[in-house]
Amino acid sequence: MGDAQAACAMTDQPWCAMEMAAPGRPLQQVWRQRLPQPGPGQVRIHVAACGVCRTDLHVVDGDLPWPGHAVVPGHEIVGHVGALGAGVAGLEVGQRVGVPWLGWTCGRCEHCLAGRENLCTGARFTGWQIAGGYAEQVLADARFVFALPSRYGDEEAAPLLCAGLIGWRAYAMAGAQAQRIGLYGFGAAAHLIAQVAVHQGREVFAFTRPGDTPAQDLARSLGAAWAGDSEQAAPKPLDAALLFAPVGALVPTALQAVRPGGTVVCAGIHMSDIPSFPYRWLWGERRIVSVANLTRQDGLDFMRVAAEIPLQVRVHRYALAQANQALDDLRAGRFAGAAVLTP
User: Fold this and answer.
1) Which domains can be identified in the chain, with CATH numbers?
2) What is the mean pLDDT of each run of 10 residues along the chain (343 residues)?
3) I need a labelling partner for 240 at 20 to 30 A (CA). Which of 32, 34, 234, 295 fits?
């Protein structure tokens, strides 16, 4: 067999993806007949695991604007490099890597030049505008591919790539002075950043949906000083509250829980409307801030922390073909921790 024939045979390998044709429709298993070929600056990755994130729900439920083409969700991707496009340096075929939500930036706008690429006006996102990891193969911009700590298996590493990264950025926004931190919504992100906070000597209070005792039990097992319903008052004034639940009504609740000078961080890409509230709840130099996406530096910083701290990653496994079930279970809150798909 000649070189050209060998190259053709290597690309002639059927593979599947879970694809959504329009907002609100179930994902469908779609088979491709040839491996995708990376263009300049891209890598092809054979997917080993992909986390199921609440942002995926916002994509499939139509909470985020439809990009105008079929979508393969998934932006917590762990896999091995299968092919390198022209000009790619620093990565090798066979290397284990991770792909996050932020998939491409222009590198030229005022935000990119100021080191705030998460606010790039032309940014494109994995599993939304760019085909994501609910698939056996994926193409990624090599600039936005991370090396992963070796202490985590593929399934454990997947939630680090969004739940971990967004949790880390929200935690950083709380500030180094925040010693008492409330986590509203104790899912994939909160169960990771709670461990970082406890490891760093902070006091963690976990607020879950009413009656979610499994999540409360998980929070306590990971070192939370207190865990209860989000409708309950905080047992102590908080220095900061991190909101991972996409529920706007929790913003006034969290404002009442933080002390003067405290911060409420809204960590989701989408949230229901925030109801009106008295100005006195904001007064006292309390702040409300939001987290928008992530930067590559966030990825480098958090992966370094994750390599140092033995994080317990609570994983619920689903086969790739069970992606719709995984999304339904996440929507209904049927598990505590993080869901992960494996091809």
Assistant:
1) 3-161+313-342 (3.90.180.10), 164-290 (3.40.50.720)
2) 38 90 94 96 98 95 94 98 97 98 97 96 97 98 96 97 96 95 96 97 96 95 97 94 96 97 95 96 97 94 96 96 97 92 95
3) 295
